[in-house]
Fold:
Amino acid sequence: MEKEKSLQMYYEMVLIRRVEERGVELYQAGKIGGFMHLYIGQEAVSTGLIAAREPRDRVITAYRDHGVALNCGISANEVMAELLGKVTGTSKGKGGSMHMADTTKNMWGGHAIVGGHLPIAAGLALGDQYAGNDNITICMFGDGATNIGYFHEALNLAKTWNLRVLWVCENNQYGMGTAVERASAVTEIRQKAEGYGMKNGQADGMDVTKVYAAAQEALQYIRETGHPYLLEVDTYRFRGHSMGDPERYRKQEEVKKWQENDPIGIFRAYLLRENIATDVELDALDAKAEAETQKSVEFAEASPEPGLEELFKDIYAA
Amino acid sequence: MAKITMREAISQALMEEMDRDPAVFIMGEEVGVWGGTYAVTKGFYDKYGPERVKDTPIAENAIIGGAIGAAMVGQRPIAELMTINFAFSAMDYIVNQAPKLRYMFGGQFEVPMVIRAVGGGGRQLGATHSQTPDAMFAHFPGLVVVSPGTPADAKGLLKSAIRSNDPVLFIEHATMYQVRGEVPEGEYIVPLGKSTIQRSGKDVTIVTYCKGLELSLKAAEELAKQGIEAEIVDLRTLRPLDMGPVLESFKKTNRAVVVEEGWKSYGVGAEVVSRMYEEAFDYADAPILRVAQKEVPLPYNRSLEQAALPQVSDIVTAVKEVLK
Ligand SMILES: Cc1ncc(C[n+]2csc(CCOP(=O)(O)OP(=O)(O)O)c2C)c(N)n1
Ligand SMILES: [Mg+2]
Structure:
């Protein structure tokens, strides 16, 4: 992989990790409330995917959205400010952790109803098809989301109307505490695309180079044929489902085993092994991510709360 | 009598009914291995096994639709919606199937099921996860809608709901699981469709339910310090609605405030106040006021969310207004 792009991807993965680690501290200090679903362990997925998109390609995802937001180019400042419910956040503090978006970065939101954003993703692609452009919508969702009707209706529509959507299932092995095999008739999620005659593929989500390659291939297919594609990415969340998950449903050894496959560690080793980067360069990126995170916390803490007038704003457009 | 939490009271009712009737089983997301998202069914999976405590896929239509079918052939499923916000993902089954099957087929079918759902705001969960849409469900004939405000009522009403031969939507409040109260042990039944007086007073009537009860009781304490004695009527069941105690109290006090957590427009208060005017207009000494949620989707930011939710002080202000 080319050096500049690789280093940017490495930086983004580390930044996601640092921002979320600080998020945990701030949550425990009572400065963040509500639900907060961490992406730690899954950083390679959105990093690889979004690195492969054209800026005109749209991205939409579920509530586990901090990483996606940062990869799309939303600043750590805005992400942190939204977590703290400040007016300088991506959604003016009205959305919180689950609802980061920035249409200027083609990030169309984290969405909190499981599977709810899939028909909307088909709709984004419908809008682009209607406009006659070849933008692609990248729609990310969990394994659990493939068991709800929304998924099936959206995939069927996308294939029937040939909408340019890259469906990406982040199979992190669990939907909350329910293992894939306890909730899904097939454990290989990509098989569900077969029922809709949709081309599909699979990638190792702990290795960002593999996600990137698989995403490039899928996006090229969609751009050329105008047909949708489903990519299943195997990954694992290192932390609980949200904050305060007792994690009774999985064994510590299993978590440890996956943690040994840390996507940041894997990528770092790859960059060194392939002589793409040196330890010194990577350490500098680690420090840069740390500094950026620190700056974002200071920015968010210093930012004002939304005023009472915000309560009644943005309910209707007109 | 033992003082236990709302969580324990609901848990008790579920266990007692499962022990009593083998036709009763639970299905829903994370009810089993996890022990319930709000820990209400903690220990159930080990005690009753996966046959009676069924972890489902994330598939609200299949959860509610499946429970309807099982109920039609004689089982007594308790279908759990992780939160009432996900009821919108199963709306057809909740309002368009369950309440209509009996009537539409000339009384041939029975749908003896309970849908347990957690509602309410105040936890900074954002607009899609914080709603109190109770009134919307109470709009549909054929559905019974229950929402208790005390642990004892939660236990007694849930047991009645499970024994009822009709579909019952049982709405709990996400911030009330730790509320404590005296709850009779063992067999304890509160009938569906009966309002009750939770606090006696002569000066003003507060009509409310669920979270509104908690707020109103606090408001009544403050008002008492200022020499105002509020009578609180707890609706407990929104459909069928029992106006008896409401009218009785209003005829005595001649002044009333209706308190609910949901939005004011087309809400529970709208229904209750209309009925009060229809049936007791001559008794009103002042316009009846409503305290409810501001007409906005609930925001994440804590101060904004609290500004949108009805507060104890809003009730106190409204009561003073009707007493002017
Ligand atoms: C319609 C709906 N049902 C239930 C929920 C509650 N819920 C939130 S996340 C989640 C698990 C989703 O699992 P998965 O799709 O695998 O995504 P992951 O959290 O693993 O990223 C559930 C059940 C919801 N938000 N929306
Ligand atoms: Mg998952």
The longest strand of chain A covers residues 165-171. The pocket of thiamine diphosphate (ligand 1) is lined by residues A 64, 112-114, 142-145, 172, 174-176, 241; B 29, 58, 60, 82, 86, 89 (CB under 6 Å). The CA atoms of residues 86 and 213 of chain A lie 37 Å apart. The mean pLDDT of chain A is 98.
